[in-house]
Amino acid sequence: MRAGSGRPPAAWAADRVPAGNRWAAGRPILGAVEAFRIVGGARLAGEVRVTGAKNSVLKLMAASLLAEGTSVLHEVPDILDVEYMAELLRRLGCDVVRDRATRSVSITVPEVPHHKADYDLVRKLRASINVLGPLLARCGEADVALPGGDNIGSRGLDMHIAGLERLGATVRSEHGFLIATRDERLHGATVWLDFPSVGATENLLMASVLAKGTTVIDNAAREPEIVDICTMLQKMGGQIEGVGTSTLVIEGVEALSPTEHTTVPDRLVVGTWAVGAVMTRGDITIHNAVAAHLEIALDKLVRAGAIVDEVPDGFRVACHDRPRAVDVVTLPYPGFPTDLQPQFIALNSIAHGSAMVTENLFEARFRFVNEMVRLGADVRTDGHHAMVRGRQSLSGAPVEAADIRAGAGLVLAGLVAEGCTTVYEPHHVDRGYDGFIDDLVRLGADVSRVDV
Ligand code: UD1
After folding, report:
1. d(CA 122, CA 220)
2. How far apart are the first and last CA of the chain?
3. Is 126 touching ligand 1 by the criterion CB < 6 Å?
4. What is the pLDDT of residue 120?
5. Do residues 23 and 8 touch, judged by C-beta distance below 8 A?
6. What is the pTM of this model?
7. CA 110 to each of CA 59, 117, 176, 226, 430: distance values in angstroms, whole numbers, following the listed order
8. CA distance 183 to 112
9. What does R_g of the chain's alpha carbons equal in angstroms?
10. Where are the catalytic residues (predicted)?
11. 197 CA from centroid of ligand 1 (Å)
């Protein structure tokens, strides 16, 4: 999208466009009033293949800024957030070209990228804060508008800022922008994170790979997406030890080279399909899925009554009876992922028995509960706990998705509700799920995208 055109870039629009992603067909990205219409009662059965993780690929795209030249990413999902990040990189002076047939994107980075990321794009995409670290390292200055993204509560940046300051940056907030500058090269330092923040770990990794000397990130996040970006940075020439642990040791280098990298599979999309199989008493084989990335969530599903079997490139989830309710407590990886919490509330709402769901990361994620109540669910919240009493059935109703995962949870609930459910604000789901509606239809659901 060139500035002001209101259309996706020609390089994307000219390619084959899957039926489920109408935003990519040359239509305006924003402003269309659409909804998902779901007629409940179908059983999900069949095979589905998952692409690369949204929460990884956006950061990998940002990481490409660290080296002049062309980096190529594979298994790039066809989602709105990737489009926003591509546009952000274009505005920073990069040439971004996507090949839909091979699910790849190539990013050509100039010798000196621009260093300003404006609010009109940044507000749509929380992950745009991830250009802060690489721009600061490469350009000596980064002006990044304070981000928006999911509507899931306050999402501080204090650890990003404190960490960059430890590396020698000066960071100030001015007119809605975070402005980070450095004098010479950033320098290595030990950074203790109060909490294993995914975004702060990524920004500090990308800033420190080009810093002078050794950086230690203590209490670092350990998500598979963090391992993925570490692997890409290593291929670019970054010196990182402790990958996958909570202590990352980075030996800064003078320069990095562009690289080619395949994005880690999206464990949150995989988890959503797994919950869908259990809720609909279905049978789904999920390809390009890593069971080890979802250990706790899969264990919960087995306790709920699921049968999980590994297949060569993923696993199969089946459930024959009404699921049993399971308690869930969200925690940083390897704990239970907050991004699967709404889907598990949906599951518990039709399960046998009662369960407590505890949300420790994003307080506003329980806003979704009000929509579940509209569908007839018995859920009561108290602070960061939600008590869910399973009901025999839900009852279809119009509901609104407030964020990506809430949208996914509502779609799953609609699949098992009696009658018709309309999920408004479906663009949230499009931000994170590649071809979701097409896959649901293939698996047997009665789901369509309608204009309302
Ligand atoms: C990423 C994911 C999101 C996921 C989350 C936790 C992306 C684009 N998003 O979000 O889907 O739910 O990890 O797994 O990858 N915090 C602070 N100060 C900081 C940084 C974070 O207070 O400087 C707080 C946040 O407000 C939040 C918690 O820490 O309550 C977790 O945030 P973080 O791990 O940074 O998540 P994100 O990177 O924003």
Report:
1. 25
2. 26
3. yes
4. 85
5. yes
6. 0.92
7. 18, 16, 27, 26, 30
8. 16
9. 21
10. 150
11. 5
